[in-house]
Amino acid sequence: MSLDGVYIVTRWIHFSALYLMFGISIYVECLTPGAFRPASRSRTRLMLHGCTIVACVCAGVLLCLQAGQMGNGWPDAFDPSTWLAVLGTSFGRVWRWQLGLSGLALLCVLTGLGRQRHGILPVLSTLMLLCMAFVGHAASHKGYVNAIAGVNQAVHLFSGAYWLGCLIPLLWTMAYLKTAHRQDVIRTHIRFSSIGHFAVIAVVVSGLVNIGLVLGAWPLQWSSIYQRLLLVKIMLVGLMTLLALVNRYVLVPRMNGDSTNAVDMFARLVGVEIALGLGVLGLVSWFATLEPV
Does the reported pTM lie above 0.90? Predict the structure, then answer.
């Protein structure tokens, strides 16, 4: 596989791991009622630890791949002197933080840190995701526009990570709907949904602002692969929004009546929503290797 191909796949895995790490942390520690939190932690612990480890490994691999892209291909990807040179660039200055925070998160997972990790991982995942707002096309501007683009990209990432990242623990904890924790699960879903409305709006609005800052126009140039892929991304986000609306305003009211069919359909549509979201992250990772024209 080419260097760019490996970079796209690694970046996609890294984004997915960060989104999941952030989503699980927020869903369990901030949205879940105290009485249900131990069960929710137990249900999602392996996934949280796994995505934290993956995010840490990918952060290191991405530095090597970035060195290869900035240098002369694969030889420079394995050259420590090139790594150091990359760490001296604008990308590298941000990536130092990414690597440091990833190391702390990995240490937190591997050592346990007792109950403290429950409060530490949400903070670390937030900071690791924030770092991603200041690399890539959104960070290619100058002056005050660069600051605006960075803040907008941060909003885009956090709202997207909340939306997609929380869907997976939501899906996993649905098994408790048939237990004594049913009301706690429903209460958690309601909290997620209430904030989710704002997250979906923020994803759409910040995405439109990104298009304006990066392209300056609606992506209608079919000769540009970047713009064609951007249109596909817009359509995928539109489908995710439609599914979210169906889940919230059609199926959730039926679930309150203890409808098994509604619960099953809700779970299926959430699964489709997750698959579409992963597709969006794949396109975002591909964008990083293309000129935004």
Answer: yes
